Amino acid sequence: MTRLKSFDLSKMEFVLRNTDIFDPTLAEKFETVILNESHQFEAEKVFKFIASFHVDLIKDLSSFDRFILPVSDKINKRKKSDEKDKMYDVLGFQLKQLENILMKNNIKFYSSTIQGDQLESTHIIKIEIEEDKSERVITKNSRKHQLGKVSSVVPSKLYTENLVSKLASERISELYYKIFNVIGNKKIMSEILGIDETENDNVLFQAFVKEYGELWLTTKAIENELFDKLIRKTTEVFEKYIQECEVNKDENK
Q: Which residues in 96-246 belong to E strands, given as ranges?
């Protein structure tokens, strides 16, 4: 049984019932649903695709070992493999099968993900298809390059999010303290960050995260924009203090 959970013009969400990540007919069940909705996908638009299964299914890795993969699949080409390898191969295989359904129905996508998440049941697959408005062109050596499709296998969404959060925190902390060590004055740092003067390190850091938190991992364009903003604000504050120092110097003559 399949059910369309929600639908709008930019984002669709489907719930495939009585199935799971080990279902060899998963792609067929997805196609049954998508055939009825393919007219909703405008030809000029590109989408992001996410297939979620219950994360508890990765607790028993032997279940993946029982999944029969085609002979051509990469797991069969390895001299050595373990249950974790098989898990990634099974998830990758199922994602590829779902991608094939999208392509078969002329639904364009830049990114696709299969992930373990906390769903309401172990016997459902949640499908999310959302319009992708991200910039897919990068400039390298003065030439523009179109980015290709990206496929991601994420056994545990929660684990990955926690890991990303940890990396983000470490990166932003490193950037903040490098900048603060150069400035070396909390009053000036407060003004650069646009907050009331404070000696509280945590308040300063949180203000920095609010304004420049995206610096840890972002597009080159946004990174340049944020650094330009930081440099511009720092320059304005320092020029102000230099002028004040010159005025005070003249008054004390």
A: 109-117, 124-131, 137-140, 143-146, 150-154
